[in-house]
Design goal:
Its EC number is 2.6.1.76. The chain is of the alpha/beta class and 455 residues long. The protein has twelve helices and 17 strands. Helix content is 35%, strand content 15%.
Amino acid sequence: MVPVRARGLTIEGADGRRYLDCLSGAGTLALGHNHPVVLEAIRRVLDSGAPLSVLDLATPVKDAFITELFRTLPPGLADRARVQFCGPAGTDAVEAALKLVRVATGRTGILAFTGAYHGMTAGALAASGGARDVQVARLPYPQDYRCPFGAGGPRGAELAARWTESLLDDPKSGVPLPAGMILEPVQGEGGVLPGPDDWLRRMRRLTADRSIPLIADEIQTGVGRTGAFWAVDHSGITPDVMVLSKAIGGSLPLAVIVYRDELDVWPPGAHAGTFRGNQLAMAAGTATLAFVRENGLAERAADLGSRMLHRLGELADTFACVGEVRGRGLMLGVELVDPAGAVSEPLDQHPAATDPEPPHAPQPAAPELAVAVQRECLRRGLIVELGGRHSAVVRLLPPLTISEEQAAAVLDRLSDAVAAVARGHEEHGPQHGPPHSPQPGAQHGRHHGPGRRAG
């Protein structure tokens, strides 16, 4: 695909084909491609003759952006916050946040979570799930389908919290008091894993009790994506630092950290970046933040996302190769598994009496099936992303402006793609894809084979 034009959810390729874009620039395009309010905001700056790059200088455009940003922040943070403009990418903001808490506390270690993704620069990578760094202690991130404790649900989240608490309080754990904890309220690249609200509140309490700054990475989850303006709003926690990028620039490069004033002890110039004064991005970001807030798009994402998730659940009920569907708001994931693979037995065979049911035993992840589904989606004119521990999760990040009709079309095309892959997997075995590749828009009947909905 070679994109040449785009509007809203739709991208047109050089060959004249149209695609529904459920990647949205990895979540950058909260309002979709070329939204009129964003284009108008950019034109106003261009037509005004204002400088386009201003480093740290105060300007009316920057003041408008900060004012709108502060309207949306959790009240406990907005009342006592400072803002640091970083380089243009989210990973630059993560670097700034790590540097900030290390300077403020005088400590060096960082607590991060398995499956995390915080960026591609050295410090951000060190805090991400795939790296190894002696200064970063890895903590379990709760999840239901592949719970590291074999429990899932509230029991799994409780065990994850106990592990973290024990690590911090055990003088022989090998983990000294850290400079900060960084977490994603919903892990995106990690496989669309929403952090349970009670667990997030527990992380907030244990960090606050031990004077450990809590850093919330809202780069992908922010600006209404999860059904609240910021994903931390679901649990009601107030982090010490929020890392923001992607959608806050209204499709243009912009990254900031917002943090409590007590942490503001680093000297001027301690963190800088040539492109931290991007006026066009600030104007586009102001327009995006205001449009999402004024039009209740976060609340709409919660409602529409819940209905889309319910329909995605039909895939897990119908196809054995769908292990679990999950998500929050318009941040959705479908995990592909090998139904013929060996099942990992849950560790906890005797759940507590308060647990509603025993945990499901997960099937092995099937990244080759996820790649096949992604390919079949593209052939049907649907763009999706892959993620998860084994790249076996098909991810949906549609713009918040997606219509009901467009949402139905997205789900129809995804369902058709899964049906084609499941049929090919059953007929030809795990080494083969679908028997043929239909043209975009071709319809397929549902396969009513053995399947279940997990989670």
